[in-house]
């Protein structure tokens, strides 16, 4: 396969290059970055020194997409919708967008969190690519919107609860590393502000609430209006990863933990653990570790989730979705061992 990564100079773009370079079905990849054009990939992403003298390219979106089997968009929010029309006109086999531009179908919900959409007519072309839940349903897709990193962790915790009687809306406390803010320096990712520190942000209005809400409505058939989950986002003093804890109050009856076993049976990258997972156990991998624990009467549930925000929450899930869409082995290029301790 011939693959192009547009926006390859960022953290997610670098992770895509790392995964695609070892993918057994990828014969050729092109790293596109306007800001890094002409530079060696290894000079921008030092961990990719094994790629030798490969350099970043630049070019019109249609030109770098034409004749390609897959085009990945690893761009800042708003850029994908600006370029998508030209990319579709070039007719690549598959477009996989890692930004938020095409994740949310509901216009009012999208505009509440992101403002007016630059290309609303293209939203219907994309399917939401939550790979560990969609699985084979992604087969044959021509355009995939990869979920956000917080949303991935949240939705993996929420999905088995969609058909369970809830007594209240679930709360989702999540903490993310500084790489989630992107490669450009910001006051909140500057080391003196981030190290030895934890703080909440986007209070009562994190953008990933939009896709979490839309998927929850879809899973519950729109009947879970009074139990729409709320994300409580926090920034932590580490580089990679998201650690999320869900707390839910349930109606009496049943064993909610069994639902997690059923929901993720046979899914290659979701592993249920007997004890709450540790973040360092997933860094560098496409795994999601979940631990679900309920009170003896089944009326209270706590679920802990650990993922790598740049792999499972971005590039890894994008490659997993590509594999599913194209009928490849789902785990191709993603049998990754982590680094521990890290």
Molecular structure report:
The chain is of the alpha/beta class and 342 residues long. The protein has two domains: 2-147 and 312-326, NAD(P)-binding Rossmann-like Domain (Rossmann fold); 150-309, Dihydrodipicolinate Reductase, domain 2 (2-Layer Sandwich). The protein is built from eleven helices and 13 strands. The chain has a seven-stranded mixed β-sheet. A six-stranded parallel β-sheet has the order 2-1-3-4-6-5, sandwiched between helices. Helix 4 (79-89) links the parallel strand 3 (70-73) and strand 4. Helix 1 packs across helix 11 (311-326).
Describe the SSE topology:
Elements: E1 2-6, H1 11-21, E2 28-32, H2 41-44, H3 61-65, E3 70-73, H4 79-89, E4 94-97, H5 107-114, E5 127-128, H6 131-134, E6 143-145, H7 149-158, E7 171-176, H8 191-194, E8 199-200, H9 208-219, E9 230-235, E10 242-249, H10 256-263, E11 270-272, E12 288-294, E13 300-307, H11 311-326
Helix pairs in contact: 1-11, 7-9
Largest sheet: 7 strands, mixed
What CATH architecture of the largest domain would you give? 3-Layer(aba) Sandwich
| Percentage of β-strand residues | 15-25%
Annotation, overall tally of beta strands: 13
Structural class: alpha/beta
**What is the alpha-carbon Rg in Å?**
19 Å
The SSE order reads EHEHHEHEHEHEHEHEHEEHEEEH
Alpha plus pi helix count = 11
Q: What is the overall shape?
A: globular
Quaternary structure: single chain
Name of the CATH class of the largest domain: Alpha Beta
Number of domains: 2
Q: Quick recap of the structure?
A:
The chain is α/β, with parallel strands linked by helices.
């Amino acid at each position: 396969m011939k693959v192009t990564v547009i926006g390859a100079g960022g953290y997610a773009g670098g992770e895509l290059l790392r995964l695609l370079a070892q993918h057994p079905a990828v014969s050729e990849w092109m790293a596109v970055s306007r800001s890094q054009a002409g530079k060696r990939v290894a000079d921008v992403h030092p961990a990719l020194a094994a790629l030798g003298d490969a350099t970043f390219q630049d070019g019109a979106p249609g030109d770098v997409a034409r004749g390609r089997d897959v085009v990945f968009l690893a761009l800042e929010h708003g850029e994908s919708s600006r370029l998508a029309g030209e990319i579709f006109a070039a007719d690549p086999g598959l477009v996989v967008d890692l930004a938020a531009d095409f994740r949310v179908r509901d216009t009012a919900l999208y505009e509440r969190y992101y403002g007016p959409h630059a290309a609303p007519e293209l939203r219907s072309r994309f399917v939401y690519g939550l790979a560990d839940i969609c699985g084979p349903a992604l087969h044959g897709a021509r355009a995939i919107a990869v979920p956000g990193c917080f949303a991935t962790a949240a939705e993996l915790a929420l999905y088995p609860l969609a058909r369970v009687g809830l007594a209240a809306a679930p709360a989702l406390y999540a903490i993310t590393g500084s790489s989630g803010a992107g490669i450009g320096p910001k006051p909140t990712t500057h080391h003196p502000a981030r190290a030895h520190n934890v703080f909440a942000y986007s209070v009562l209005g994190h953008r990933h609430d939009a896709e979490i809400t839309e998927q929850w409505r879809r899973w519950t058939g729109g009947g879970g209006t009074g139990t729409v989950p709320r994300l409580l986002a926090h920034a932590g003093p580490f580089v990679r990863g998201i650690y999320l804890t869900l707390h839910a109050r349930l109606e009496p009856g049943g064993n909610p933990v069994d639902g997690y076993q059923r929901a993720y049976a046979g899914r290659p990258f979701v592993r249920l653990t007997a004890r709450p997972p540790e973040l360092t156990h997933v860094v560098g991998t496409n795994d999601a570790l979940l631990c679900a624990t309920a009170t003896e009467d089944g009326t209270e549930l706590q679920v802990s989730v650990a993922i790598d925000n740049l792999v499972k929450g971005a590039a890894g899930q994008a490659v997993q979705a590509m594999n599913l869409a194209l009928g490849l082995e789902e785990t191709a290029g993603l049998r990754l061992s982590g680094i521990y301790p890290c």
